[in-house]
Amino acid sequence: MQILDGKALSIKIKNQIKEEVSRKKDSGASIPHLCAILVGNDPASETYVRNKIKSCEEIGFKSSLFRYESSISEAELLHQIDVINNDPDIHGLLVQLPLPKHIDVSKVVEKIDYRKDVDGFHPMNIGRMAKNLPCALPATPYGILKILEEYNIETKGKNCVVVGRSQIVGSPISILMSRPAYPGNATVTVCHSHTIDLASYTRKADIIIAAVGIPQLIKADMVKEGAVIIDVGMNRIDDASKKSGFRLVGDVDFNEVKDKCSYITPVPGGVGPMTIACLLLNTLQATN
Ligand code: GUN
Predict the structure, then answer these.
(1) Pocket of ligand 1, candidates 35, 66, 119: which has the most ligand atoms within 8 Å of its Cβ, to mutate?
(2) What is the pLDDT of residues 202-254, one digit of tens each?
(3) Positive or negative, the Cα torsion across 67, 69, 70, 74?
(4) Nearest Cα residue to atom 11 of ligand 1
(5) Could you tell me the domains of the chain?
(6) CA 174 to ligand 1 center in whole angstroms
(7) Residue 52 designated active-site
(8) Are 242 and 16 within 8 A, CB to CB?
(9) Which residues have C-beta atoms less than 6 Å from ligand 1?
(10) Which residues does 71 contact at the CB level (< 8 Å), separation at least 6?
């Protein structure tokens, strides 16, 4: 079994971006500026946003964080997005999800100028992705493609089972893995909460992409010998031995599956760091 080291790859990509930013500075070109909006104080969202801002600082991007109480009205949030859309000094804008229940996520995502949508969630970007046209790809699926590419993993003609159909990961990665390109050209099956006998699908998979948010759902007896495992899960489970009181586990039972598969992304250190690296790539692209 070989570990797919997303952490190392993310550092390599961030160093490449850092060099590009330094060239931009020397030539007097615009420095990429990412703006994040965080509503409320969900602890996981706080961590994600903090890491995104920290990464911007590391590579020389400008960054701004706009924080709002969870009581902000939908109209006010939409107005703030409009202000940022019209600010020529800001190249990329993300609104951290989830949002409070009284705010319509679709309205928020559609309000973002699709040229600044570095999350790749806007229907314009999703539509262009489905049509295989240049666009900002959703950052986590983009990160998965980069990992497959880095390790030269064959995808053509393979059975790829995606577990989960979220707008952020499952749905877009299923489109990307079946597109006529590398990585892609796979035969993709999307499994979800209504799938009957999940194991009968995962056992036939050459590639499993688990993005369902259920801790350690995928066990060894659900995996074919030699399969490639991409674990997108980032689940907090109680662990009294940790100072924080929790630890992160994936959607795959790593200890059970590691000896059966050919490649596997660890949690943490697999897909997670690649999401940020690809968000930064999208921001760089939005600046050019
Ligand atoms: N919440 C969980 N993942 C993401 C992401 O990739 N982008 C945003 N904006 N929110 C998220």
Answers:
(1) 119
(2) 999 999 999 999 999 999 999 999 999 999 999 999 999 999 999 999 999 99
(3) negative
(4) 97
(5) 28-118 (3.40.50.10860), 139-271 (3.40.50.720)
(6) 18
(7) yes
(8) no
(9) 94-97, 119, 139-140, 168, 275
(10) 100
